[in-house]
Automatic annotation (TrEMBL):
It is a multi-pass membrane protein. Keywords: Membrane, Transmembrane, Transmembrane helix, Transport. The lineage of its organism: Bacteria, Pseudomonadati, Pseudomonadota, Alphaproteobacteria, Sphingomonadales. Residues 21-425 form the Major facilitator superfamily (MFS) profile domain. InterPro entries: MFS (IPR011701), MFS_dom (IPR020846), MFS_trans_sf (IPR036259). It comes from the Bacteria. It comes from Novosphingobium sediminicola. Its main location: membrane. This is ACS family tartrate transporter-like MFS transporter. GO terms for molecular function: transmembrane transporter activity. It is found in: Membrane. The chain crosses the membrane at residues 21-44, 56-75, 87-106, 112-136, 143-161, 181-201, 243-265, 277-297, 309-327, 333-354, 366-386, 398-419. The keyword Transport applies. GO terms for cellular component: membrane. It holds the Pfam family MFS_1.
Amino acid sequence: MKQSTNSALEQTISAKVIARLVVPCALYILIGAIDRTNVAFAALTMNNDLGLSPAQYGFGAGVLFIGYMLAKYPSVLLYEAIGMHRWLASITAIWGICSASMALVHTNGQLYALRIAIGFAEGGLSSGLMLYLSLWASERHRAAILAIPIMSINVAQVIGAPVSGQLLDWTNPWGITPWRMMFIAEAIPALALAIFAYLWFPDTPDHARWLDGEQRAWISANVRGAQKAPGGGERWAVLRSKVGWTCAAIWFCILASNYGIMFWLPQVVKGMGNLTSTQTGIVVALPNAASAIGLILNARHSDRTGERFLHVAIPALLGGVLLVCAWCLGAGAAGLLCLILGGACTGCTVAAFWAIPTRMLAPQGLAMGIVVINMAGSLAGATVPPLMGVLKQTTGSFLPPTLLLLGLAVMCAGLVILARRQMARAA
């Protein structure tokens, strides 16, 4: 009877956390992803207007992640110092202003500078929100809870790709070049969310008025991230952990594949046929829609079975193979189907992955572990899209960049198996 009561209490708490915190957090991830990646659609006309080569565009897309890496740890320290609501309001306002300022770009140097600034403002977003949700998510529901904000990255492309394409097809609205207008329009939601953040989010479960005393006590006793951790050098213990570094390498491979697709897919699709920007946006949305569905299904199955590692390795490998098949098949129904399934498999690994380090890392090392892992993901964003641009410019084909993504998928699967063995030895 007691176990049944605890289970019902956990279910009630999880439902409240999802409705009041997880879904709003997902909205910030969604808007941040649109503002971070809409340059991929702007590139359809911006590259010609600014005279950018594929290599220069690739560098401009990836240089954002230099700011991302530089801001990871300082942003988490700021989060811990001033609390969730002040921190999220501040960084959201800054990235919204910087995103709108992309409309003023006239040189590649200005493009690079603003991309770094956006990355710096957004740099701590994913780390901070993962750390914040670790205060509320129990082990039983962790992958599913983390899947919702992570899924919003894919939803951002499902929504943002058609909207961006439609904005690009406008004919000089209010005398502003369409790609410049796109940056302004898509930055406005971030500015509104900055105000919402300050008014909505409790800093800790103790500040959540919508939880009663019993529910707060349950979180304190049963949610690992909410447990008080000793200070001192143990915070840095993750830097000595082989498993922690393996997780960072896995995350590098996962995000390298995802960002490689995200920043280049519009140009790949545009090159497959005589499509308008709006049509290109609709086609680009399809793999991301499939990825969002796959992510939720994969996370739920991982939670139900308790298995985490194969839920990352197998989809990653399938995704890489299917992307190569899509290139080989080219335009047509078969190629599009492989592209959709490849995007689904590549994207659905993310939530199952985050259930691994949040379970394996000690509470006192969790914040630093999340920072290190996210910095590895930022490094992937800073290196792989530019490398794909160099390969495309050198060979004139998207086959070498696609093979690069396949290689990363194979590496990801191998590292996941290594992590499983490391955890088994440590048990």
